[in-house]
Amino acid sequence: LAGGIILGVALWLRHDSQTTNILYLQLGDKQAPNTFYVGIYILIAVGAVMMFVGFLGCYGAIQESQCLLGTFFTCLVILFACEVAAGIWGFVNKDQIAKDVKQFYDQAFQQALMAESETNNGKAVVKTFHETLDCCGPDNAIGAITPLWRDDLCPKKDSFLKNLIESSNCHKKIDELFSGKLYLIGIAAIVVAVIMIFEMILSMVLCCGIRNSSVY
């Protein structure tokens, strides 16, 4: 059940419309940085393997097989080590992920403001960011002034004053998007780690109980 829940959360994060809209963008020959998906793929793998390993543990307990329970314990230790490594990687790279996406957005924004921007897809990339995140410009100052010279780049508001007041800068929105998603990944990883610790303890207790009972 825990494996199924983790797999479901990971698949939802993988196919979330906001992140897929942004991370599938391509600026000329450059692909949007999708390092974020590394953590998602690790969660998907852990969830799928947990479902199989859970079945292995259940079958081993029903059959009272020390071999199957020992294999179950070994698999849990390997999964736990992988998850700890993934958690450390996520903590180290959490700021870098948002930074890379912001740099990609800034490059597209600069190209969209250039006179020859119609010859590349910078404008399309920027508009996707603006529409997906409901923002305008890389920071508050530029975001407020952008509609003055490139009104077609920002989400349409009823009036210029409303656009000035309601438009948020895209750097802030990118930070909020990825910090929120990484927060969910962190919670899922902690929950799985706690469940794994209990599973390892209980499997060893059961394995020892079966071994001791077979003596008599």
TrEMBL record:
GO terms for cellular component: basolateral plasma membrane. Gene3D superfamilies: Tetraspanin (1.10.1450.10). PANTHER family: CD81 ANTIGEN, TETRASPANIN. Belongs to the tetraspanin (TM4SF) family. The chain crosses the membrane at residues 36-62, 68-92, 182-206. Keywords: Adaptive immunity, Cell membrane, Disulfide bond, Immunity, Lipid-binding, Membrane, Transmembrane, Transmembrane helix. Coiled coil: none annotated. It is a multi-pass membrane protein. The keyword Transmembrane helix applies. This is Tetraspanin. The keyword Cell membrane applies. GO terms for molecular function: lipid binding. CDD domains: CD81_like_LEL. Pfam families: Tetraspanin (PF00335). GO terms for biological process: adaptive immune response; regulation of cell population proliferation. It is found in: Basolateral cell membrane; Membrane. InterPro entries: Tetraspanin/Peripherin, Tetraspanin_animals, Tetraspanin_CS, Tetraspanin_EC2_sf. Disulfide bonds join 135-170, 136-154.
